[in-house]
Design goal:
The complex is a heterodimer of chains A (417) and B (488). Chain A has 417 residues and is of the alpha/beta class. In chain A, 34% of the residues lie in helices and 12% in strands. The radius of gyration of chain A is 21 Å and the shape is globular. Chain B is mostly helical and 488 residues long. The chains are: A alpha/beta (417), B mainly alpha (488). Chains A and B meet through helix 6, strand 6, helix 8 and helix 9 of A and helix 11, helix 20 and helix 22 of B.
Chain lengths: 417, 488
């Protein structure tokens, strides 16, 4: 699969994503009071906690272009038209260097707020976009429960969970990582989440009361979603006010960037202090079967520019926010017939922001030696779940990680303080 | 219509529960035409058969739609010329094509055919307005429609090597000297056997090799051809299919390979499960999937046979209320049941254009899914709190024409109301429940609508003029916003 418009697409999510969240909200004990007064007070109490933002690079980002292993001759011989020469790399050490389009993030790197991790991935190769995304986001291969890891994370952090604990921003379709019994939310933005007749207080109240009665009497996911919708609408105005007020002075996100819009809304949400704990954002367009060179450059440029703007936009809240990038798989070492790269295995991951011991590369680097590759791909030496555990341990120490990532052997790389 | 319209009655007739269920699942909205057709044919089986024989159903309204979009009649090279001259962009072609598709869903009488064209377009998915495929996208649609109620085997043959598909999934760049795996892999994973069939990376490579030789001059006139010089020659083997593949023209091998995949038991199960996801529930049993797969296989991939097996299975009848409309289905349904029919698309204010943005605002835009796996077929995906709020808003907007949509043949209020008066507010709610939801109003719905409008159920209205636009909009919006209004 291929998506051309780098980063501007809402790349979407798992085809099998199922929003059970709303359906089981009642079980999770969420109060769905009409105008959310009870919930609002709960929320403000929790508004200063740490936040994880997961940026999904949909399509299978080429980790070898993002963190270039410039000391490996195998990289240069396998990619005659798309390899990046060492002299063009940013912040290179003896083994690795960043793609030049990461320039906007170099200040964060130099100030120790951004780390590059390599040879990360699933425990076994899976070159299907859709299955690999599903696996990455479910992250509990021994279970058929279909509960995503972010959902397990928010369930472990608060009881009862709040509809604003885990949010997908930029798309109304719920990603697998958020699916599960803890209530969570997927939305393009907050501007259009008002009840009908929002400006007519009396009529809006009548409409809401009538809907409340009908959806409360409806069993299953639809009824619960209706009740959560009423709660959500009661608080959307307040969040939208904070989102609409941003970005803070001096910050600009790139124009026409879906990622920029989603991160701008995320920054507003965080400023609104509604108590969000995890945000999932998609950055699409990384499936570079054709013309890797300029396409991946555009994608990295969009990613780096948006993330740099996001951290500037967060201002004093930046000290609470950690960003991690994930992608379903890396790509083939060797170029295909279209100056692109087909689906591969091991990949690069970035961690930015609060708690990151940045300014360095971390990897149990397997090398690209012919005996070290897996079916012609970079091997995986660190399970991506171990990477996430390392972040969660540092930022959410109260969390029981054995419930979020059951059965995973923790093998820290040391990139968190 | 004005004398025989169903809405003329204070208590318009409704279909039997099973008729309503079949019609609701296999149309984009049970409007007066569907009800009239079902009633005159006598039963849902007869109606289904008449719909399956779609070429024999007269459909003047549906046939008109293509004349609203002259751009879509362009040859691929003409389309490219316009883009090169910056007269139009790929986006414009995609916008027209999506508008065409939405309009057909609303106005066509061949509803089962429309629903199945949508279903297959979502399985063999190509977005609208995508750079490498846009000049060929309407022709790809023609191919899908031709086979939508035919044999899957023939649809697969026509679709996989179609120039739109070659552009979209890079097969136009897949040559013996430079294999590009994109289409070869998705053919196995998405269009036929699925991952569980157990193919490996060598199967994927063979799959891609078989597909070499198809050319499209992407970004340069988009002429499509087959070039034996680019075709990989030599033995190929995929999941039990093997072929010496010794001649330079590989097209017979492609046909044999696609036939093999279409007939593969894993494809039968995968297609059957997807049909059940669309028409039965998010959790179809293995039993109904096996029954549909069996009908598919025994008929040599006949889609009609598969559908007949599906609707005959008791699990189908028992699945009432288990599917939520997607945003596209939601907006199209409302337009149909309130009788807002597009009659053109000459300006951006046309209803046909507005429905694109309405469904987009609810969370789904026609042919805008960016990935080759198509929009999710599971209802729960579309049951998020945010989506519900947006649906509640858009229902009122459509009912009251708050967007001021033009080029729409919406009946005047008096022509959507009964002809004998007075009636009570409760009767008005019941009337609209019958017209919009296909059933009599429950006590709780009458109360909900009365509370919303702040009008007593016993209040009497002397004539149609006494029902103000405002009241009528409130009633219709409130009826559509009842939880059942989102189910199909």
């Amino acid at each position: 699969m291929t998506v051309d418009d780098c980063g501007c697409d809402d790349y979407g999510v798992s085809r099998r994503s199922i929003l059970k969240a709303a359906g089981l909200a009642a079980m999770a004990g969420v109060t769905t009071s009409m105008f959310g007064d009870v919930m609002t007070s709960t929320v403000f109490g929790a508004g200063e906690g740490n936040i994880l933002v997961v940026v999904s690079l949909r399509g299978g980002a080429d980790g070898l272009s993002m963190i270039v292993p410039h000391a490996e001759s195998a990289y240069y011989s396998a990619r005659p038209t798309t390899a990046i020469t060492k002299s063009r790399l940013q912040v290179a050490d003896t083994t690795f260097g960043l793609h030049p389009a990461f320039a906007p993030l170099v200040p964060m790197w130099r100030s120790g707020q951004m780390a590059g991790l390599h040879a990360i991935g699933l425990p076994a190769p899976n070159r299907s976009h859709f299955e690999a995304m599903e696996l990455v986001e479910d992250a509990d291969p021994g279970s058929s429960a279909r509960i995503g890891w972010i959902n397990r994370m928010i369930a472990g952090l608060a009881a009862p969970s709040d509809v604003f604990d885990g949010i997908q921003i930029g798309s109304t379709v719920m990603p697998t990582s958020l699916v599960g019994p803890a209530p969570s939310l997927a939305t393009g933005g907050f501007a259009d989440l008002m009840m009908p007749f929002a400006t007519d207080t009396v009529l809006k109240q009548r409409v809401s009361t009538a809907l409340q009665a009908q959806y409360a009497a409806t069993p299953g996911p639809l009824g619960a979603a209706g009740l959560n919708a009423l709660t959500l609408a009661g608080r959307a105005a307040e969040i939208n006010g904070a989102v609409a007020a941003g970005p803070v002075t001096g910050v600009t996100y790139p124009k026409y960037s879906g990622l920029g819009e989603a991160l701008g809304a995320t920054a507003g949400l965080i400023r609104a202090k509604v108590g969000v704990k995890a945000v999932a954002v998609d950055a699409g367009g990384w499936d570079h079967h054709v013309d890797l060179g300029w396409r991946v450059e555009d994608c990295i440029d969009d990613l780096a520019t948006c993330l740099a703007a996001f951290f500037a936009d967060l201002g004093t809240n930046a000290g609470r926010v950690t960003v991690v990038t994930l992608s379903e798989f890396g790509r083939r070492l060797t170029e295909n017939g279209s100056r692109g790269v087909d689906h591969g295995y091991g990949n690069a991951v970035f961690a930015l922001g609060a708690g990151v011991a940045g300014g360095a590369y971390y990897s149990r680097w397997p090398t690209l030696g012919s005996g070290k590759q897996v079916d012609g791909d970079l091997a995986v030496t660190t399970d991506y779940r171990s990477v996430l555990m390392e972040i969660l341990r540092a930022r959410f120490p109260a969390l029981d990680l054995s419930k979020v990532f059951p059965g995973v052997t923790y093998a820290p790389l040391g990139f968190m303080r | 219509m004005s004398t025989t319209r169903l809405s003329a009655s204070v208590s318009p007739p409704v279909l039997s529960a099973m008729q309503q269920h079949v019609a609701s699942r296999f149309t984009f909205g049970v409007d007066e035409t569907v009800v009239a057709d079902l009633r005159s044919l006598g039963g849902w089986q007869q109606w289904m058969e008449s719909q399956l024989a779609w070429t024999r159903l007269s459909d003047p309204r549906g046939a008109q739609v293509s004349s609203w979009f002259p751009l879509l009649g362009d040859t691929p090279s003409d389309a490219w010329d316009r883009v090169k001259k910056q007269e139009k962009s790929a986006w414009d072609f995609g916008y027209d094509f999506s508008t065409f598709t939405m309009s057909r869903k609303i106005v066509s009488r061949r509803q089962v055919h429309e629903v199945m064209a949508d279903f297959w377009s979502n399985l063999l998915y190509i977005p609208a307005g995508e750079d490498r495929s846009f000049p060929w996208r309407p022709d790809f649609d023609r191919v899908i429609r031709e086979h939508a109620l035919g044999r899957f085997r023939m649809m697969l043959r026509a679709a996989v090597v179609h120039p739109a598909m070659s552009g979209w999934l890079n097969n136009s760049e897949n040559t013996k000297n430079g294999i590009n795996e994109n289409l070869g892999r998705e053919l196995l994973e998405l269009y036929t056997v699925g991952r569980t069939a157990g193919y490996d990376e060598n199967d994927v490579k063979s799959s891609a090799r078989i597909l070499t030789g198809f050319k499209v001059k992407v970004f340069n006139g988009y002429a499509a051809s087959y070039d034996p010089k680019d075709h990989y020659v030599g033995p190929v083997s995929v999941l039990g299919f093997s072929h010496p593949n010794s001649s330079a023209d590989g097209r017979p091998v492609v046909d044999a390979y696609l036939d093999y995949l279409a007939r593969h038991p894993a494809t039968a199960t995968r297609v059957a499960r997807r049909l059940c996801l669309r028409f039965v529930s998010d959790t179809p049993s293995d039993g109904i999937v096996a029954a549909v797969a069996k009908a598919y296989s025994e008929s040599d991939t006949d889609i009609k046979a598969a559908l007949r097996a599906l609707v005959r299975h008791p699990e189908f009848a028992a699945s009432v209320g288990q599917k939520v409309r997607t945003p596209v289905e939601d907006v199209v349904n409302v337009a149909r049941v309130i009788g807002a029919l597009p009659s053109g698309a000459s300006t951006d204010a046309a209803l046909a254009r507005h429905v694109i943005w309405m469904s987009s605002s609810v969370g789904q835009k026609q042919f805008d899914w960016p990935r080759p796996d198509g929009f999710p077929e599971t209802s729960n995906t579309w049951t998020s709190p945010a989506r519900l709020i947006r649906s509640w808003n858009i229902h009122y907007a459509l009912a009251g024409n708050w967007w001021g949509s033009k080029e729409s043949a919406t009946p005047a209020r008096a022509d959507a109301l009964p002809t004998s008066w007075p009636i009570t507010f409760g009767q008005l709610v019941d009337h609209q429940s019958r017209m919009l939801l296909g059933r009599a109003a429950s006590t709780s719905l009458r109360k909900a609508v009365a509370d919303t409008a702040n009008v007593a159920e016993t209040r009497s209205f002397a004539n149609a003029a006494a029902v103000s636009d405002w009241t009528f909009t409130l009633v219709r919006g409130a009826v559509l916003n009842t939880p059942e209004g989102l189910l199909r």
